Amino acid sequence: MTIRRMDNVLIVVDDLEAVIAFFVELGLELEGQGPLDWRGAERVIGLDDVRQDIAMLRVPDGPGRVELAKFHRPEAITPEPRDAPANTLGLRRIMFAVDDIEEVVARLLAHGAELVGEIVQYENVYRLCYVRGPEGIVVGLAEELD
Protein backbone atom coordinates (compact mmCIF):
# COMPACT_ATOMS: atom_id res chain seq x y z
CA MET A 1 0.00 0.00 0.00
CA THR A 2 1.39 3.39 -0.99
CA ILE A 3 0.24 6.98 -0.81
CA ARG A 4 -0.88 8.15 -4.24
CA ARG A 5 -0.68 11.91 -3.63
CA MET A 6 -1.36 14.62 -1.08
CA ASP A 7 -4.85 15.74 -2.05
CA ASN A 8 -5.35 18.98 -0.10
CA VAL A 9 -4.66 21.00 3.03
CA LEU A 10 -7.59 22.43 5.03
CA ILE A 11 -7.43 25.90 6.55
CA VAL A 12 -10.29 27.06 8.77
CA VAL A 13 -10.89 30.79 8.29
CA ASP A 14 -13.22 33.54 9.42
CA ASP A 15 -13.12 35.85 6.38
CA LEU A 16 -13.51 33.39 3.52
CA GLU A 17 -13.55 36.03 0.76
CA ALA A 18 -10.34 37.73 1.96
CA VAL A 19 -8.47 34.43 2.16
CA ILE A 20 -9.73 33.35 -1.27
CA ALA A 21 -8.51 36.67 -2.70
CA PHE A 22 -5.08 36.15 -1.06
CA PHE A 23 -4.62 32.68 -2.54
CA VAL A 24 -5.91 33.76 -5.96
CA GLU A 25 -3.38 36.64 -5.91
CA LEU A 26 -0.70 34.07 -5.03
CA GLY A 27 -1.66 32.17 -8.20
CA LEU A 28 -4.06 29.45 -7.12
CA GLU A 29 -7.28 29.00 -9.09
CA LEU A 30 -10.69 28.90 -7.41
CA GLU A 31 -12.29 25.56 -8.31
CA GLY A 32 -15.52 26.21 -6.49
CA GLN A 33 -17.13 27.47 -3.32
CA GLY A 34 -20.40 27.21 -1.46
CA PRO A 35 -22.11 25.60 1.49
CA LEU A 36 -21.10 22.07 2.42
CA ASP A 37 -24.44 20.27 2.53
CA TRP A 38 -23.16 16.72 2.90
CA ARG A 39 -24.23 15.40 6.33
CA GLY A 40 -21.54 12.73 6.10
CA ALA A 41 -19.00 15.47 6.76
CA GLU A 42 -20.19 15.63 10.37
CA ARG A 43 -19.33 11.98 10.83
CA VAL A 44 -15.90 12.48 9.20
CA ILE A 45 -14.88 15.51 11.32
CA GLY A 46 -16.54 14.40 14.56
CA LEU A 47 -18.76 17.49 15.07
CA ASP A 48 -22.56 17.66 15.26
CA ASP A 49 -24.95 20.16 13.71
CA VAL A 50 -22.30 21.60 11.37
CA ARG A 51 -22.98 24.48 9.02
CA GLN A 52 -20.03 25.64 6.94
CA ASP A 53 -19.04 27.22 3.66
CA ILE A 54 -16.04 25.86 1.80
CA ALA A 55 -13.86 26.90 -1.10
CA MET A 56 -11.43 24.70 -3.02
CA LEU A 57 -8.44 26.26 -4.74
CA ARG A 58 -5.98 24.39 -6.92
CA VAL A 59 -2.46 24.84 -8.10
CA PRO A 60 -2.59 25.56 -11.86
CA ASP A 61 -1.44 22.52 -13.83
CA GLY A 62 -0.57 20.70 -10.61
CA PRO A 63 -2.04 18.17 -8.22
CA GLY A 64 -2.10 20.34 -5.05
CA ARG A 65 -5.18 21.95 -3.50
CA VAL A 66 -6.00 24.21 -0.59
CA GLU A 67 -9.44 23.81 0.97
CA LEU A 68 -10.81 26.72 3.00
CA ALA A 69 -13.67 26.32 5.47
CA LYS A 70 -15.69 28.94 7.31
CA PHE A 71 -17.69 27.43 10.17
CA HIS A 72 -20.98 29.11 10.98
CA ARG A 73 -21.95 26.35 13.40
CA PRO A 74 -20.25 25.35 15.62
CA GLU A 75 -18.27 28.56 15.83
CA ALA A 76 -14.55 28.29 15.01
CA ILE A 77 -12.08 28.41 17.88
CA THR A 78 -9.25 30.96 17.72
CA PRO A 79 -5.81 29.60 18.70
CA GLU A 80 -3.54 31.55 21.01
CA PRO A 81 -1.40 33.37 20.17
CA ARG A 82 -3.11 34.24 16.89
CA ASP A 83 0.13 34.98 14.98
CA ALA A 84 2.15 32.11 16.42
CA PRO A 85 5.90 32.07 15.74
CA ALA A 86 7.55 29.42 13.54
CA ASN A 87 8.59 27.28 16.54
CA THR A 88 5.00 26.74 17.74
CA LEU A 89 3.86 23.12 17.66
CA GLY A 90 1.52 22.19 14.83
CA LEU A 91 1.11 23.07 11.17
CA ARG A 92 2.97 26.35 10.63
CA ARG A 93 2.91 27.04 6.87
CA ILE A 94 2.25 25.80 3.35
CA MET A 95 5.16 26.11 0.89
CA PHE A 96 4.70 26.95 -2.78
CA ALA A 97 7.31 26.88 -5.55
CA VAL A 98 7.18 30.11 -7.59
CA ASP A 99 8.95 31.42 -10.68
CA ASP A 100 9.77 34.92 -9.40
CA ILE A 101 9.77 35.34 -5.62
CA GLU A 102 10.22 39.13 -5.73
CA GLU A 103 7.21 39.58 -8.02
CA VAL A 104 4.98 37.28 -5.94
CA VAL A 105 5.98 38.97 -2.67
CA ALA A 106 5.29 42.42 -4.16
CA ARG A 107 1.79 41.33 -5.28
CA LEU A 108 1.00 39.82 -1.87
CA LEU A 109 2.31 42.85 0.04
CA ALA A 110 0.07 45.07 -2.09
CA HIS A 111 -2.79 42.84 -0.92
CA GLY A 112 -1.98 43.52 2.74
CA ALA A 113 0.31 40.56 3.46
CA GLU A 114 3.55 41.04 5.37
CA LEU A 115 6.97 39.49 5.01
CA VAL A 116 7.66 37.42 8.15
CA GLY A 117 11.44 37.69 7.97
CA GLU A 118 13.30 38.38 4.76
CA ILE A 119 13.99 36.78 1.40
CA VAL A 120 17.12 34.67 1.77
CA GLN A 121 19.15 32.44 -0.51
CA TYR A 122 19.86 28.82 0.45
CA GLU A 123 23.17 27.92 -1.16
CA ASN A 124 22.82 28.03 -4.95
CA VAL A 125 19.54 26.14 -4.85
CA TYR A 126 16.62 28.34 -3.64
CA ARG A 127 15.52 31.81 -2.63
CA LEU A 128 13.06 31.45 0.23
CA CYS A 129 10.73 33.50 2.41
CA TYR A 130 7.61 33.35 4.55
CA VAL A 131 4.66 35.70 4.01
CA ARG A 132 1.84 36.19 6.53
CA GLY A 133 -1.53 36.73 4.85
CA PRO A 134 -5.04 37.32 6.14
CA GLU A 135 -5.94 35.69 9.44
CA GLY A 136 -2.28 34.99 10.16
CA ILE A 137 -1.96 32.32 7.46
CA VAL A 138 1.71 31.79 6.65
CA VAL A 139 2.83 30.64 3.21
CA GLY A 140 6.39 29.83 2.29
CA LEU A 141 7.66 30.76 -1.13
CA ALA A 142 10.56 29.00 -2.85
CA GLU A 143 12.15 30.13 -6.10
CA GLU A 144 14.42 27.44 -7.51
CA LEU A 145 17.66 28.90 -8.86
CA ASP A 146 19.02 27.66 -12.20
Keywords:
146 residues; alpha+beta; five-stranded mixed beta sheet; four-stranded mixed beta sheet; 18% helix; globular
Helix percentage range:
10-25%
Report the strand count. Answer: 9
Question: Assembly type of the shown chains?
Answer: single chain
* Succession of helices and strands: EHEHEEEHEEEE
Q: Give the strand content.
A: 35-45%
Query: How would you sum up the global shape?
Result: globular
Label the structural class.
alpha+beta
User: Ranges with pLDDT <50 over ≥5 residues?
Assistant: none
- Give the overall average pLDDT: 91
Q: What Rg is obtained from the alpha carbons, in whole angstroms?
A: 16 Å
In angstroms, what separates the terminal alpha carbons?
A: 36 Å
Total of DSSP H or I helical runs spanning 4+ residues: 3
Give the biggest sheet. Answer: 5 strands, mixed
Task: Summarize the structure in words.
- By secondary structure, this protein is an alpha+beta fold.
- The protein is 18% helix and 36% strand.
- The chain contains 3 helices and 9 strands; from the N terminus they run E-H-E-H-E-E-E-H-E-E-E-E.
- The protein is globular.
- The model has no long low-confidence stretch (mean pLDDT 91).
How is this fold's topology laid out?
Blueprint: E1 9-12, H1 16-26, E2 29-35, H2 40-45, E3 51-58, E4 65-73, E5 94-98, H3 101-110, E6 114-115, E7 120-122, E8 126-132, E9 138-144
Parallel strand pairs: 1-4, 5-9
Antiparallel strand pairs: 2-3, 3-4, 6-8, 7-8, 8-9
Quick rundown:
The chain contains three helices and nine strands.
